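Q: What changes when guanosine-5'-triphosphate is included in the input?
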Amino acid sequence: DHTHADTLRTPIVAVLGHVDHGKTSLLDTIRGSAVSEGEAGAITQHIGATDIPLDTISGMAGELIDPSDFDLPGLLFIDTPGHHSFSTLRARGGALADIAVLVVDVNDGFQPQTEEAIDILRRTGTPFVVAANKADTTPGWNPQDGEPIQKSMEAQSERAKSMLDENLYEIIGQLSDAGFSADLYWRVQDFQKNIGVVPLSALTGEGVPDLLTVLMGLSQRFMKEEMAIDVTGPGEGTVLEVKDERGFGATVDTVVYDGVIRNGDTIVVGGQNEPIVTEIRALLRPRPLAEIRTEKEFEKVGEIGAAAGVKIAAPDLDQAMAGAPVRVVRDRTADQVIEEVKAELAEIEVETADNGVVVKADTLGSLEAMANALREAEVPILRAEVGDIAPRDIAVAETANQDEHKAILGFNVDLLKNAESDLENADVKLFKNEVIYQLVEDYERYVEEKQR
Ligand code: GTP
Ligand code: MG
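A: The predicted holo structure follows.
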């Protein structure tokens, strides 16, 4: 059924994984192969995202894909750099990503941030595939640049093949320990029941055609209904990051997942204290094919439709929160939309108690994930907020009436300079970490030692 093709939006694919396991390299390779396919112009760089059209994907996947099998326009990949928490990737109470690629280094296997990614994928019910990356580091590997993985396997020595297999089965075992039945993707019959593992190398590109094929198949089969959107409706998106931009002040890097956002639109954005109502001054996109993170020059666009990443410049955005909703008002009243945004934020609001610890996190999503982890560990929360650790947080933590609760747990946040001396002088213990469960474990160990 191709009649709805123009109203099917691009599926959003989040690329997740432990630090250095190769998320960015994988995206670079997908972009790079697209360039060598002579399709460079077809790729659009967005803020925090890369859009690869179907034709380009089928060009890269070669014999593995028949483009006439698909009516989705392509795939929009979102990189989750370094320690930046991908739990930011939320939308309407669920996951912003329609599908995910969990990148795992075949030699390292599961690492703390892999476990964390798995937890979030499980909780949000996001379908995913595992990219077992760095297959080329297998001793004695005979690289087959850009080839499908099974073809590449045929070119390997028995010894290299069995070493890779061993690592792959280790990962399949770790997935099983995490509660997911998984297998090498070509053995998976039903991707709804089993997780496909795709061995590949971001460095040589072998196995990348397979990954693209599996992703297209997954999106097409399971998500077509969710991809049907009103392309002209008021835009809805999620703040990925709040950033100061020279000449524009505070801006929000946003992924639009529904409708269209136009320059001049009035928008409502979730803020630290209350929803921000403001008018868009500029919609900005990186110039074509420039590397996003080093790109300073933006192109102003008149409008942008889902799914896409865009930088929004507007007054009063300095209080906006990563992970918060962005909604275009259009033909409704601002009050209506404020209520919508409030309702969405209320879903995330963390349950607090009269006594407990202070929690700070970098984004709404990570705050929510922290709260879940602490609830499981039966640690009560006195106050939970997005943002760096400020003098006020120390003052609040000091009011806790049990010693073990005079603590601040900071996830992906910094201690502000003006709070340093307060912390020194206060009877408050600060815990900081970039892995949620380690943060919780550190705190639990501290409490145990205190009680000894
Ligand atoms: P963060 O964004 O910091 O979390 O890391 P990342 O997951 O984006 O990893 P990145 O792509 O930056 O790769 C980390 C290192 O691994 C780099 O030195 C890459 O060159 C290397 N690397 C990535 N993929 C491969 C691969 O398939 N083979 C080999 N040999 N090296 C790889
Ligand atoms: Mg990276």
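Observations recorded in class: The chain has eleven helices and 24 strands.
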